[in-house]
Amino acid sequence: MEVYYSFSILIVIATVFSYINHRFLKLPSTIGIMVIAMLVSIGLVIIGRFTTKPLNDFYELVRHIDFTQMLMGGMLNFLLFAGAIHINLQDLKEQKIPIIVFSTLSVLISTVVVGFALYYILNNLLPIINIHIEIPLIYCFLFGALISPTDPIAVLSILKQAKVSKALETKVAGESLFNDGVAVVIFTVIFNVAQGMGDFDISIGSISWLLAKEIFGALIVGTGLGYLAFYAIRTADDQKLSVLITLSVVTGGYMIASAMHISGPLTMVSAGLIIGYSKQKALEKYPNAHLKGYLSTFWELIDEVLNAVLFLFIGFEILLVKDLNDYWLTGLISIIVVLFARYISIKVPTLIIPFKEKFSKGTITILVWGGLRGGVSIALALSIPEGDHKPTIIAATYFVVVFSIIVQGLSIGKLANKIKI
Hints:
Elements: H1 2-25, H2 29-48, H3 53-64, H4 67-84, H5 89-94, H6 96-103, H7 105-125, H8 137-147, H9 153-162, H10 166-194, H11 204-236, H12 239-260, H13 264-285, H14 289-316, H15 328-352, H16 361-369, H17 375-382, H18 390-419
Helix pairs in contact: 1-2, 1-14, 2-3, 2-14, 4-13, 4-14, 4-17, 6-10, 7-8, 7-15, 8-10, 8-18, 9-18, 10-11, 10-13, 11-12, 11-13, 12-13, 12-14, 15-16, 15-18, 17-18
């Protein structure tokens, strides 16, 4: 019942903040909700200097919600499925090489660059000016793994308004759909190494097998679920039952993925893509009204509601950072390092891999600046066990996520219009 009350409160607050943003701020919905949540959090901190009760009450509410479990064990599956079901699989096939490279190789490159760069700056450069923020290299890699997956939910609508090319929009969307699962696997491997688990095999063969099982197993299971679900949707020919079937795919599919120890996010993405593609093909042959609008409307609504709650909670996560003044330098360094790593992770593959199309300077700029970080990064940071380095990693993650969503998210549209890709 406690989870129900907590989620109910978040829904009500998200609705109020969404209304305020729609009437007054007029920012993109998710960004507006997050900004208002951050302002409210800062206001509570200021009020807390005079009377601690409202701050403590709200802090306890936020602290007792298991954001990692809520997002990784539930919301992310619905959000990825809702995003995938609206994406044209044929467009993804046309951009399959860049998407595969950016969602796998680029994540690895970004993890390594962030890890080495952050470690060198914090442990070698800052002590020169008598600033000491020491973090072991393995934890720098851990931060690199959790901060590397992109989350362009907030920026996709802006890119559409900016009228960028369909190819570029597909690259951004496709990368974000697939790199979450890859990043979670990399994070898990580094996390086990950091914790010094003696029974965990860190050989190249073992890690390669883990990645292959998580990725290809998820794609096979998700594809099978997608085709099975659409067969049921087509033969049932009932609007309400169609929605129920897709809900079962998300909830039941995640349970299957967990039991098989494969990537739940990638399972949901592949299932959503297959159902969306099959629906599109069926409509070309047999224009069914319930396929045309009912499923799309339902999942658009789910997407909007869960995104509102997600970005609301991201805004409130500032309350979990004990003292921002202690981490502003680490946060600023992390922002610069992550942007640099993002550039390297996009630029290097375009130089060494013979893509069909040549990436212009403007395209690379949009891919770099449009690589927003979001809830997945925060959820992974919060999943780290309590220890000396966890507060620093959480604070650095929060700085990067807030900067990317607010600064990059609000400026990517103007940048795209200026470059005119």
